[in-house]
Amino acid sequence: MNADAAFGPVMQEPTIKSFAEISAEAFRIYNEALRGADRNDPLVYLYSRFGFLSESVSWSIRSLVSWNRVLPAMPLARVRLEQIIITSYLIFEDVEIALKPYLRQFPIDQFRNTREAMSNATLRPHLSDEVHAQVTAAAQAARKQMDPTFAGPPESIATKKWTNLDLLSMARRRDQLTTTLRNASRFPLENSYTAFYRDFSALVHTSSMAVSPEFLVDVRLPDGRIVTVQDPVWNRNLVMVLSTWDILHVFELLRAMELDREEKLKELNSRWVEQRDLVFRPSPGPEKSAASGA
What is the largest CA-CA distance in the chain? Predict the structure, then answer.
């Protein structure tokens, strides 16, 4: 089955279709490059998993928009931005500071989840003491790798996080690390966080902004009834920003796996700029309008 067949009627709107096709093309470039990759390479093993998650989320956002369901697509857009910021930070930060602690965090998080489940009276009878002991041992070893001086009891294993940076701080640090590069990675992620992350978070947490005119508008139907609908401008804006995120993320993932497709992605970015300029073409001033009408 063609995955595009699952898209709805909104995808036929020319601007939305153009940006959605740019996202799809970015992942076609990604998958074509990945076919020739060495799956035994640890970096390919790791970053191709980020790529799988990223493509899945991007496709889901486009599908929701195509059915005029942009509001539930926005929490996924928050996820998409987190994927890009965290992955990009892992790629550019020192391995000892970021990537190694990040990978060591998994057994610690698994221990935290298992411990909480073991303390639940309803779940406890369905769980294994042997498995919990194995998870605890793995978490202790990971914590020891992250902090060789650690000698605390099992209860304190989960107090360690792989980084003290929040997401905005991580975006800023990533931007510092990429500011001198002369390629797509110069694109600052702090701007994306500031412009979109908090708005999208409003829908995740159902804050008061979620029910505000930021997202919802009232329209009067021909029969006189008033109904609440999502602001239609978000359909276009979301696929537009998604497509530029997808180009950037594919570029960085492929570079991290030493599968460079920079020229193809440059061409794709040029298409994106052309579409953006069509959307935000400035209105001609009075003199230009008069000349055009002469």
Answer: 85
